Amino acid sequence: MRITGIEEVRSRDGKKLVRLEFFGCNLRCPYCVHITEKDKAEKMSMNEILERIREIFKGERGQVTLGGAEPTIQKGIVELVNSLKEDGHRITLKTDGLKPDVIRDVIEDVDRFVIEIKAPLDDIDANAELIGLSRQKAEVYLEKLKKTLELVREKSFRAWIRVIPDYVNDTTIRAIGRDIKGADDAMLYQFLSNPTYDREFKGYTEPVPPVEEIRKLARVLLEYVPRVEIRSIEGAEVMEEDQKKG
């Protein structure tokens, strides 16, 4: 397996949380920093990863988040998830949704999924631009993403939405809302607000759009999901169903 980091943090409830960040992706999103992180990648066996995580937890149970570029392309990911669950941890898996067969294999052991939605799922051209692949491959990506969404609706999942104004805006947000209906919540992330996530794209060099515009998008999404978290240069804030107006 190839990873770029194993990081210990504290979750909101004070329990230990370990973030395991993988290297390598089956998409080529032109704004993504992960496609430039080759120098940070470290090869580790599944047993080495488990040993490192067990050293951090020291027998405690906590939460493990699997993310980075794309965990589902890693050989041994199913066995790793199984082992982490056997150790008693809650597991969150962040994915682009392009491997529904892998999602099916881990779905019983994963407690929560985070699925990135890039644009309305009926807009093939927009998704092709955002994933950096041909239109034909974008059609395959969207077909598989829809299958993944069908699977994770049976569990708990968050829709992770990077707000690049050309693709996520007041014109497209309702279509996106319909696509993610059934999610426990959504996160609207202000593009370029965290330099560890993004590279400049489409002429945008500073965080966009303004936070107030993201709040308007959040109010629309609350017609489809019960809770929306906003992440921006101003920090994090949460909007819930009773905040649709205002």
UniProtKB/TrEMBL annotation:
Q: Where is the signal peptide?
A: none
Q: What are the residue boundaries of the Radical SAM core domain, all occurrences included?
A: 10-231
What InterPro entries does the entry give? Aldolase_TIM, Radical_SAM_PqqE_MftC-like, rSAM, rSAM_sf
Could you tell me one molecular function GO term of this UniProt entry? iron-sulfur cluster binding
Q: Which Gene3D superfamilies did the record assign?
A: Aldolase class I
| Pfam families per UniProt | Radical_SAM (PF04055)
The protein, known as: Radical SAM protein
Q: What is the protein's species of origin? A: Candidatus Syntropharchaeum butanivorans
